Amino acid sequence: MKRTQRFSKRIPHIAAIVLVAVLLCGLARSQEAAPQKGHFTIYGFIVYRDVTSPASASSGVLASVQRYGIQPVDLVYEQRLLDVDKASPRDAKINPDKIDTVAKDALKNPGELVALDIEDWNRFDTAHSPALYLQVLKEFQRANPKSKVGLYGIVPQVTYGWSDDVPVKYDKLNASYKQVAEAVSYFSPSLYNWERALTDESWERAAKYAIDAAHAYDASKPVIPYITPEVTRNGNTSFLSYDQMLFRLQTLKRLGVDGCIIWTGTASGRKAGGTFDPSQGWAKAVVDFRKE
C-alpha cells in the first residue's frame, strides 16, 4: 500500500517532466524552422513527387522531404492577399481581410517562415509600389507580430541574372524600397536560372550583387534567397545537374547567407517530369550538401 502511495505521488512529477520534454522538443523544431543568423537552413516549396515515398501527394507541397532536413516554408501567393482583376493585374487592390486571415493562420505555427509573393504591381513605379508593399507588411504584422515574414524578389529587387548594367539600373531602385527593407524580417532575393544566369559565373555574379544589396540594407538581418532546380527556355523546362545545384548551394554558403528557399513550379516542373529523387541529380546535391 505504501509503495502504491509513493508511486501515485510521483505521477505528477513524471507528468511534469514529460510535459517539459514535449515543450522543449517543440521549441527546438520552432527554432530550427525560424531563420537564424549564421546558420544555413534549407527551406523547400517542392511540389514534385518524392520517388522514395509512394504515398507522397502528386499535388501540394511535399512534407516527406523534411526527413532530409529541408524545412517547410509558408509561401503565400498574391491571390490570397489582394483582390486581383485579371484584366488589369497592375491595379490589384490590398484586401485587409485576406491578409488578416493569412496572418492568423500563420500564428498556428509561428516558427515557420512566411514568404509573401506579390508580383502583380509595377515594381519600377517607385512613387506608389513601395508604399503598397509596406502596407501589406504592416497589416500582416499587426495581425501577427510573431512570424518571420519576407517578400519574394523585392528587397533587394530581382535582376533576372547578370549584366554589366545591373548596378546602374538596380542600385537606385533598391534604394527606393528602403522602408520596405526595414519592415521585413529577412531578405529573399530571387536567384533563379534566368537566361542571363545560365553559366555558373553569371549566376554567381548575380548572387553576389543581390546579397551585397541585402547586406547594404541591414547586415544584421538574415538573407535567404530563392533558388530553383528548373531551367525554362522557350516554354521547355529542364533541370539543374548535380554539379550545378551543388555549386549554387556551396556558393551561397560561401557568400555568407543564412539559407535558401528551394522553389519548384506547380505546372512547368511537373509537365517536364520533375521528381524529388535523393539518389541522383539536383535533389541528391541538396541531400549531400546537408551532410557537409
Considering the chains and any ligands shown, give keywords for the structure.
single chain, 292 residues, alpha/beta, TIM Barrel, two-stranded parallel ribbon, 12 strands, 15% strand, globular, disordered N terminus
Content-based structural category: alpha/beta
Give the distance, in angstroms, between the N- and C-terminal Cα atoms.
Answer: 57 Å
What percentage of residues falls in helices of 4 or more residues?
40-55%
Oligomer: single chain
What does this protein look like?
By secondary structure, this protein is an alpha/beta fold. The chain has one domain: Aldolase class I (TIM Barrel, Alpha-Beta Barrel), CATH 3.20.20. Helix content is 41%, strand content 15%. It contains nine helices and twelve strands. It has helices at residues 2-33, 96-106, 129-143, 166-175, 178-183, 200-217, 242-254, 268-271, 281-291; strands at 41-45, 49-50, 71-77, 82-83, 93-94, 113-117, 149-151, 226-227, 230-233, 236-239, 259-263, 275-276. A hairpin with a 2-residue loop joins strand 9 and strand 10 (236-239). It is globular. It starts with a helix and ends with a helix.
Write the layout of secondary structure elements.
Layout: H1 2-33, E1 41-45, E2 49-50, E3 71-77, E4 82-83, E5 93-94, H2 96-106, E6 113-117, H3 129-143, E7 149-151, H4 166-175, H5 178-183, H6 200-217, E8 226-227, E9 230-233, E10 236-239, H7 242-254, E11 259-263, H8 268-271, E12 275-276, H9 281-291
Parallel strand pairs: 1-3, 1-11, 2-12, 3-6, 6-7, 8-11
Antiparallel strand pairs: 4-5, 9-10
